[in-house]
């Protein structure tokens, strides 16, 4: 009788950012399009509870063994802010580039790990107040479904926020009171990103981590799919400087964002 070897816990740990974000567990299935997999519960998630890679990685991919707070709605703002940079670098401003700021509501939650021996608690990142009790509270985490905003359109902008291939993105976060608690400036250059490919980028500072996807599709460029956000700051504050890391570049299936046999809203586009 053949008995498969049990993998060690070390071999099961995923350390690469690419694998953490891009690969699905064996229990997951890719069925249908972006709307199906994101919003119709046809993609099953692994039921195992564990932390993968670093603490930030665990929060970004939503794989922790902790309980979550009730969601609170924040606003994510995105704007192409420095067209002069684009032109100085020799680019011509494409008509597809957005010049207006777009706001997208999204839910954030904080996560608590029970720790009876804890002598103190972290302040709630949204209010600055203590969460109380004998537990440590994580930073606020949330996912911004950028492509969902455009999915109901048959517009040419789908699958995301249209941008020139080279410029500066201004990303902002507003809390429930409408106060801007974070601003991030991301200089980018997609001139070497092949058509039909996507680039996963992470902006990291001492107060916020934002992970976004750039797309190159038919000579047009987008920010789309899901932006993943971790608010690290214990107090309200504005951040404009940070480190930008290219995590991964890979091909993507255009039909995953444009066509589906089940989803009528944009199967016609």
From TrEMBL:
Q: Which domain of life is it from?
A: Eukaryota
Name by which UniProt lists this protein: Uncharacterized protein
């Amino acid at each position: 009788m053949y008995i498969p070897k049990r993998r060690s816990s070390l071999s099961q740990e995923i350390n690469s950012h690419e694998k953490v974000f891009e690969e699905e567990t064996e229990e997951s299935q890719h069925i249908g399009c972006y709307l199906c997999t994101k919003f119709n519960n046809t993609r099953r998630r692994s039921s195992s509870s564990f932390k993968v890679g670093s603490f930030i990685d665990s929060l970004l991919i939503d794989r922790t063994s902790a309980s979550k707070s009730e969601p609170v709605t924040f606003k994510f703002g995105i704007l192409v802010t420095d067209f002069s940079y684009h032109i100085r670098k020799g680019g011509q401003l494409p008509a597809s580039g957005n010049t207006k700021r777009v706001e997208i509501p999204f839910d954030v939650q904080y996560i608590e790990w029970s720790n009876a021996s804890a002598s103190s608690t972290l302040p709630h990142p949204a209010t600055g107040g203590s969460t109380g009790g004998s537990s440590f509270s994580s930073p606020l985490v949330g996912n911004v479904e950028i492509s969902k905003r455009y999915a109901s359109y048959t517009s040419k902008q789908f699958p995301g926020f249209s941008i020139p291939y080279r410029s500066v993105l201004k990303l902002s976060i507003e809390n429930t009171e409408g106060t801007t608690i974070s601003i991030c400036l991301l200089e980018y250059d997609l001139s070497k990103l092949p058509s039909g490919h996507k680039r996963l980028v992470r902006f990291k500072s001492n107060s916020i981590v934002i992970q976004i996807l750039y797309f190159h599709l038919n000579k047009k460029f987008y920010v789309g799919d899901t932006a993943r956000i971790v608010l690290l700051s214990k107090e309200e504050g504005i951040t404009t400087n940070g480190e930008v890391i290219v995590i991964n570049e890979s091909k993507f299936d255009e039909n995953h964002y444009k066509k589906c046999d089940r989803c009528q809203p944009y199967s016609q586009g």
